[in-house]
Write a structure and sequence with these properties.
This protein is α/β, with parallel strands linked by helices. The chain folds into 2 domains: 251 residues, Spore Coat Polysaccharide Biosynthesis Protein SpsA, Chain A, CATH 3.90.550.10; 38 residues, no CATH class. It is globular. α5 packs across α9. It is 35% helix and 24% strand. Bound molecules: 1-O-phosphono-alpha-D-glucopyranose. 1-O-phosphono-alpha-D-glucopyranose binds next to β11 and α9.
Length: 297
């Protein structure tokens, strides 16, 4: 039975240690690409795909996220008084309808599968999306929307997929491809962070998923996997053993790994160059920097 995907889970409980000291006081999801926090990109993508309910799996120290998505009456009335309508508009994207957003705590860092499992009662018996905000995807048609459209044809479980260099396999969930249909593959198996020589392909899972509630039942077993953590990859792979379909979707777009400093910087440059109000001055500055660097070498 296929149903519309209207719920999305955002696992945001991670400590963000790769960005210390910044993340000592600021959740990494609030770190900004140009002027919007990482989490805003994820929410906008979810909205574009038709998501109506947003479930955050958080942890201690993430209160800033709750404030970010709350209305800010004082700020709004001060902007209104000053006639700053454009800024008021900008704030609108940060507001959620009453009851549209829920926060669940993951009390222990037991892995991504466990984080999603923590949201099981809110997801209930429906297909749902999972978005990892660290993976920012710039695309003409937002990635999750592409996937929802494909899912409406296929049903089953679907993960975003992208070719990665073979030596990077140990950083990703890797797909064992049954049949390659071009923008989509059907999957025989999935392995979380294999040694490169053991990887079944070069096709990696990227942080967008559409999952059936069966995956939550698989997670009930709380089986620990790679790194001693409860892995979402394993719970999806269990679907294949149950002879249910799992697909990898080769999305159209550019993915930035904003969980790493280099990826975050690349995303910052790319998004700044994509902005009409910044690209002129910024690209001039970048060319100047590059020629200076070249001259110094
Ligand atoms: C998670 C998933 C992994 C996936 C990756 C995509 O790993 O466990 O399967 O390939 O996200 O970014 P993490 O990067 O959180 O270790």
């Amino acid at each position: 039975m296929k149903r519309k995907v209207t719920k999305a889970v955002f696992p945001v409980a991670g400590l963000g240690t790769r960005f210390l000291p910044a993340t000592k006081a600021v959740p990494k999801e609030i770190m900004t690409l140009v002027d919007r926090p990482l989490i805003q990109y994820a929410i906008d993508e979810a909205r574009a795909a038709g998501i109506k309910e947003f479930i955050f799996v958080t942890s201690r120290g993430k209160n800033a996220l709750e404030d970010y998505f709350d209305h800010a009456p004082d700020l709004e009335s001060s902007l209104r008084k000053k006639g700053k309508t454009e800024l008021l508009e900008t704030l609108k994207s940060t507001n959620m309808d009453s009851g549209a957003i829920a926060y669940i705590r993951q009390h222990k860092a037991l892995g991504l599968g466990h984080a999603v499992w923590c949201a099981r009662r809110l997801i209930a018996n429906e297909p749902f999306a999972v978005i990892l905000p660290d993976d920012v995807i710039a695309a003409e048609k937002p990635c999750l929307q592409q996937m929802v459209e494909a899912y409406e044809e296929t049903g089953g479980c679907m993960v975003a997929a992208m070719e990665v260099p073979p030596e990077k396999a140990s950083s990703y969930g890797m797909l064992d491809v049954r049949e390659d249909m071009g923008n989509m593959v059907s999957v025989n198996g999935m392995v979380e962070k294999p040694d490169p020589e053991d990887s079944p392909s070069n096709l990696a899972v990227i942080g967008r998923y559409i999952l059936t509630p069966d995956v939550l039942r698989n997670l009930n077993r709380l089986k620990s996997g790679s790194g001693g953590e409860i892995q979402l990859t394993d719970a999806i792979a269990d679907e294949i053993s149950e002879e249910r379909n799992v697909y990898g979707y080769r999305f159209r777009g550019q993915r930035f790994d904003c969980g790493s400093k280099a990826g975050f910087l690349q995303a910052t440059v790319a998004f700044a160059l994509g902005r009409d109000d910044l690209k002129g001055e910024f690209s001039e500055y970048l060319s100047h920097m590059v020629s200076q660097q070249n001259a110094a070498q």
